[in-house]
Each structure stands twice: as structure tokens, then as C-alpha cells.
Design a protein that fits this description.
Helices cover 23% and strands 19% of the residues. By secondary structure, the chain is an alpha+beta fold. The structure holds zinc ion.
Length: 216
């Protein structure tokens, strides 16, 4: 009898928020961070559709994550993964494993290669966004959460309206002739009001935000 040692792997996904993603990066993209005492089970997901659904419907709709969610992809030694019973949670595609928190170290040791982000959702910026996407800082008022690059290298403006100072890139400047400086001065003179009809983020502080510009 010949014993075959297999290097076969099973691909898995896991939806994470920005805090867990930061911890994963701290671990060299090779392991998932320990669970909290209130989280007795670690849930890797077995298909991308399910992982994307959790990320978009859950992570990206929560103020706790800043409305951001990431789909991570990784491979686990198949022989190890086979130890766990596949759990189907509701729909037939909703397949996941239930790994007890105390076995997470062993699970991590069976990850082959790196944990990669394959999709990113941003509930404030219209759903799925490019993986490289990060929010942009308003060059007028320092608001850090614009969805689009205000003045992309390809030219023109983003047409996004800064919810903080109300500047619309490509319109306030190109069509109406305001410079960033002029708009900023006028906004400061008016007492730095929140310009969007939506409610300002919790803890929004326009004076602190302006110092982001000076720091650059
Ligand atoms: Zn602004």
C-alpha cells in the first residue's frame, strides 16, 4: 500500500470588517486573529457568492465597520478541512464551517499561502468598489471620506459633492470658477457648517478635519 501525502487545498472565504482586516495584515496575511471571548466559533465560508452576500448585506451596512466590508480568500489543506462537517445555513449555497475558537491556531497553521482580499464593499460609496479603493480627502475642507478622487489624473472632476463643505469637483471649480482656497475661506466664515442633507458623522469636527490639510 502506498501512502499518498496530498498537498491538495480547499479554497475558503471569509467576510471581514476593517478591524479584523487590520489584524490579519498585522499577522502577515497568514492567519486570522484570535476570537473574542464572546465569539466561540470561527466561520469560514465555502463559496464566494455567500461570502460576498454576507459582506455586502452585513459588514457594509453597519456603522460599526464604517460601512466597509472585505471578502478574504485563502486556501486550507484539504485533509485538515475535511475534519469539519459542512454546515448549510438556510439556502443551499450558504455553506460554511464551524471551527471552535480554541482550534483557530490549528486552523491558521493549515492555511497555505496568503490571505488575500478579493472584493471590497463600501455601503456609503454605492456597494462594491475596486479592491485598491480607499476614500479620498477633500482638498477644500479635509473631509476624509470622499468616495471618488476629486481631481483624477485623467482630467476633469469627480462631480462628487463634498458632504462637509459642499464643493462639487468639476462644477464649483470649472463651471463656477471657485478656487479651493476661496471656497474654504467662505465656508470657514460661515462657521464650517455640515453641507449635506444627511446627518453629519458622529464626532464630526470640522476644525480637526481642517488640520488634516495643514499636515500635508
Ligand atoms: Zn470638503
Amino acid at each position: 500500500m502506498i501512502l499518498i501525502v496530498s498537498d491538495e487545498t480547499t479554497e475558503m472565504f471569509r467576510p471581514v470588517g476593517p478591524k479584523e482586516l487590520a489584524r490579519i495584515h498585522q499577522l502577515g496575511d497568514r492567519a486570522f486573529p484570535p476570537r473574542l471571548p464572546s465569539q466561540p466559533v470561527f466561520y469560514p465560508v465555502l463559496n464566494e457568492f455567500y461570502a460576498r452576500k454576507i459582506t455586502s448585506d452585513w459588514n457594509a451596512t453597519s456603522p460599526d465597520t464604517g460601512y466597509r466590508g472585505y471578502v478574504t480568500w485563502f486556501r486550507v489543506r484539504a485533509a485538515y478541512a475535511a475534519r469539519f462537517e459542512i454546515q448549510t445555513v438556510g439556502a443551499s449555497w450558504a455553506k460554511e464551517l464551524w471551527v471552535p475558537a480554541e482550534e483557530l491556531d490549528e486552523f491558521n497553521a493549515n492555511i497555505v499561502g496568503l490571505i488575500e482580499v478579493v472584493a471590497q464593499y463600501d455601503g456609503k460609496c454605492g456597494g462594491e468598489v475596486a479592491v485598491e479603493h480607499s476614500r479620498f480627502t477633500c482638498p477644500v475642507c479635509g473631509y476624509p471620506d470622499l468616495c471618488d478622487e476629486p481631481r483624477p489624473a485623467v482630467g476633469g472632476g469627480s462631480y462628487e459633492i463634498c458632504p462637509s463643505c459642499g464643493f462639487q469637483f468639476g462644477v464649483s471649480d470649472e463651471d463656477r470658477g471657485f478656487s479651493f482656497e476661496a471656497w474654504r475661506s467662505s465656508w470657514i466664515e460661515r462657521g464650517m457648517p455640515w453641507s449635506s442633507g444627511n446627518i453629519a458623522p458622529v464626532g464630526w469636527d470640522p476644525a480637526v478635519q481642517l488640520t488634516r490639510l495643514e499636515a500635508k
